[in-house]
Amino acid sequence: MSDRGRHFDRARYHAMKRAWERFGLAIGLGELREIEQHLVAGDYRWIADLSGFCMAYEADFRQRRIYPVFNGRLWAIVTFLPSEAWACRFAIRSIRS
Question: What is the pLDDT of residues 58-72, one digit of tens each?
Fold first, then answer.
């Protein structure tokens, strides 16, 4: 497996781990991909640009509000943030600016 492939797998594993830690959600790879598809389709609300290539969103998933971070270079969710306020605090550009 290439370095990019390993990085991609680790990023997705990290996102699934953070979903469990922050929201108590056991998200599988298939569900993570489904959330990614909705992000790309524009179904979720954009909250903030966290860097030149990472964006935070607000999504409703399993009757909970979650905050996935999508990495445009990897084209994958790389983590979940604990709240909208947290995302805006570290944003380059956000809904609050």
Answer: 999 999 999 999 999
